[in-house]
Amino acid sequence: MPADAFTLEHLKTILREGAGTDESVDLDADIIDTAFEDLGYESLALLETAGRIERELAISLDEEVLARARTPRELIDLVNTHLPAARAL
Q1: What is the pTM of this model?
Q2: Sign of CA dihedral 65, 8, 40, 53
Q3: Digits of tens for pLDDT over the chain (89 positions)?
Q4: What values do phi and psi take at 51, rounded to 5?
């Protein structure tokens, strides 16, 4: 997992391993600002993804704040705001 920052590549790995991918979606395309819903990830898949991120990075993500992350960029930014606090522990 990342040393200093959570990246799109880390997110793609977690999405593929945890929630899988829709055959019609190319996660290797430019998806950073594509809505998760358009990528085939509904709220349950995102909760699974968030749980995997929390376990792997030893962070806690607020569910209400998590629900506002509609794109990979927004989720990555959210995760990265929690990393400095997690690294300080």
Answers
A1: 0.84
A2: negative
A3: 545 899 999 999 999 888 777 777 788 889 999 999 999 998 888 989 999 999 999 999 988 888 899 999 999 999 999 887 666 66
A4: -60, -40
